[in-house]
What we know:
This protein is an alpha+beta fold. The protein has helices at residues 8-33, 47-59, 64-72, 90-100, and strands at 40-44, 73-78, 85-87, 103-104, 112-119, 124-127. The longest helix is centred in the first third of the chain and has 26 residues, at 8-33.
Amino acid sequence: xxxxxxxxxxxxxxxxxxxxxxxxxxxxxERRHGFPPGANEVRPxxxxxxxxxxxxxQAGVFxxxxxxxxxxxxxxxxxxxxxxxxxxxxxDALLRFEQYGAVDVGAGEKAGGLVIxxxxxxxxxxxxxxxxxxxxxxxxxx
Length: 142
């Protein structure tokens, strides 16, 4: 049985729904706040992002859902939703991992993770590996 739960078709529908909601928010933003909105978009994956997603898949450590997400979604920038929400492009997340390795995911956790984004309030979003044997950065460069 495949561990892939996130389907590209569902992601496409999600992007459509979110983009519509973001457009409505942007239409009201300047009237409400007195200045124009920042970037609020979900970018589709480009060739570089899809290649980075394949490299994540080849590592066999991160979930199939994360790979599917990055094979379809390039990045997420919601500058004007709350304090802001940002999901980095796959190639940026992978480069950071290759340069600095896994980050600690908290006290008592045995495995580190891949930083995939942040919010505007100083929190980072980390994808934990499927299993506890996270390779060093060299295991993902293939």
